[in-house]
Structures are given as structure tokens and as C-alpha cells.
Specification:
Two copies of one chain form a homodimer. By secondary structure, chain A is an alpha+beta fold. Chain A has six helices and three strands; from the N terminus they run H-H-E-H-H-E-E-H-H. The model of chain A has no long low-confidence stretch (mean pLDDT about 95). Chains A and B meet through helix 1, helix 2, strand 3, helix 5 and helix 6 of A and helix 1, helix 2, strand 3, helix 5 and helix 6 of B. The first copy, chain A, binds a DNA duplex through helix 4.
Chain lengths: ~110, ~110
Amino acid sequence: MATNEDNVFKALADGSRRALLDRLRVCNGLTLNELCEGHEMTRQAVTKHLAVLEAADLVVTKWRGREKLHYLNPVPINEIYTRWIGKFERGRLQALDNLKEALEEDRHE
Amino acid sequence: MATNEDNVFKALADGSRRALLDRLRVCNGLTLNELCEGHEMTRQAVTKHLAVLEAADLVVTKWRGREKLHYLNPVPINEIYTRWIGKFERGRLQALDNLKEALEEDRHE
DNA sequence: TAAATATGCAACCAAAGGGTTGCGTTGTCA
DNA sequence: TGACAACGCAACCCTTTGGTTGCATATTTA
């Protein structure tokens, strides 16, 4: 079952987009204009970033008159966490051991 | 203090690179040639991907004769998890509530 | 030492990304 | 109704990215 994994990772790859998510995390339901404030780019650039976030289902929008409200959807991030990051977290100490051991060998050779 | 956050997110944005990390998670210390097996690209393409992973400190290498061994470094992923994903996980239920509430309004209007 | 193996380096290419500008559309309000 | 405000669409541009091919270098091994 192919999840949205790739879209989510790609969406998170850009710092501006992560900043937008951060804004929404703190203050959910902002309009496009509000999201533009504090960013040094045009509205259209922000629009494009939001489109990427929407495509990844990280942001859900809703119209209120002429305003577009943006809501954070925490589900995709949670999925990335549970089914991808989780795998690495589980084997984390083991991997650290492997690494240390491998680097240690050099000192003895 | 600027961490390697951006490099890590960018490195994780590509599916081939995530696959390489997965391989190393299961079988740490693989050589370049071994990592090339099963991938439908040239050795040079894999080399480039590994370079990106190294730049993000997700992979650490060590030479054994003419072979280059690749080890997974779990630290950056853990940092992303604790200091970025964590923020969103903490406000997760709240964000879900916001979202549901916003979508519910439509049905009553 | 010669051949084979494992990897690096550099040039090149097409496609994707992040950004801009210009203009059109829709909703609000005096 | 007319002006303004919030947003969408599309063309264009430069840089980055993911990939290739060709050749060089270093280490084994026969």
C-alpha cells in the first residue's frame, strides 16, 4: 500500500515550507495573506509552497468568503514518524554500537 | 545553534537515498559495490547519493583496503525526531481537533 | 609484474525546483 | 455600482538535482 511518504518527505525538504508548518502549528487556520507576512518572498511563491504541502496532505484548506484558511494536518507527520523514523529509532543503539566498533578498529591497527 | 537539519531533510527527500539507509539499517557496513546491487542505476549515481548522505552525517565511511565501508549514523535522524517531529507530535491531538472543527462548520452552514 | 577489482573525478544533460512578474477572477464594502 | 482586497493561473528564468559516460587511481591477486 503506497502511502504519501514520498510527497511528505519532499514537502519537508524545504526550509520555507517547514517554517510555514511551524507557523500553522502555533497558529492554526491562517489565511494566505497572513502566512505571507514575515516571509521574504512574493505571495505566489508562498502559494506554491502551500500547494506542495497540500499535495502531501500536510495542510488542509477551507474557504471563508474570499479568504483561504490553512489548517495543519498532523496525520502524515505522524505516519512518517511511526512507520519510518520508528524503524531507525528501534535499531538506534545497535547502529551506534556498530559505528563505534568500526571506528575503534582503526586505533588498534 | 544551526544543526544539520536542512541537510538531513534534503537527504531524506529522495526515495533512493531512503532505500540506501534502509539497507544499511538492516545490514550495516556494506561496501559501495554491495550497495549498488539491486539498484537500477550506475555506481556513480549511488556514489552521489551516498555523498549527500555523508554530507548530512547520516552515513559514516571507513576504508578497508580498496573497499569503502558504509555505516549508518542514527544520531541525525534522532535529532530530527526529538527536536522537529516531536513538536508536532505534542500538539497533534489539538491540531486534529482544530481540523475537525473547521471542517464540521461547513455542514452547519 | 600484469590483470582484475573497487572506487574517485569531471564533464555533460534533461528535468525538477524555487522564485519572479503580469494579469484575471471572485468576494467585500462604502 | 465601483473600488479594493484576497486569491488563482500562466509564462518565464535561473539554479539545483539526479542521472549518465568516460577516464584515472589505488589495491588485490594470479
